Amino acid sequence: MSANQVNIPYLQTQDSGLNQVQQNINKVLNNQDNKIIDLQASVNEMIILGEVKFSPITLEEFQAVAGTTWILANGQTCVGTDYSQEFSQNTVPNISVSGTNAFIKVNL
Fold it and tell me: Are residues 63 and 93 in contact, defined by beta-carbon separation less than 8 angstroms?
């Protein structure tokens, strides 16, 4: 059971109709929980070309975690990347925030 699930106690009664209602409710709730988990996984897998993320770590450290499809958003060239082709841009934006690095996704 995941952390956000609630265990609904099974009704113990002589009325089999009530038992069936509780079973049906449990099936509906479990199905909804599985849909939420699937939706969370889909959101986590979304790939957004041109997405920008900020982190105080270096490019090498960031790429070790997020992959080499990310580069520094420091105005550098991006010729030959998916970003360049999609947005008809030869350079990425120059994004500067004190104390952190900006990374931009340039390839899918």
Answer: no
Whether pTM > 0.70 for this model: the answer is no
- Single-letter residue type at 102: A
- One DSSP character per residue, the chain reads --TT--PPPPP--S-HHHHHHHHHHHHHHHHHHHHHHHHHHHHHT---TT-EEEESS-HHHHHHHH-TTEEE-BS-B-TTSHHHHHHT-SB--B--BTTBEEEEE---
- Which tens digit of pLDDT belongs to each residue from 21-79? 777 777 777 777 677 777 776 766 677 899 999 999 999 999 999 999 999 999 999 99
Residue 55 near residue 99 (C-beta atoms within 8 A): no
Q: Residue 104, Cα to own-chain centre: how many angstroms?
A: 16
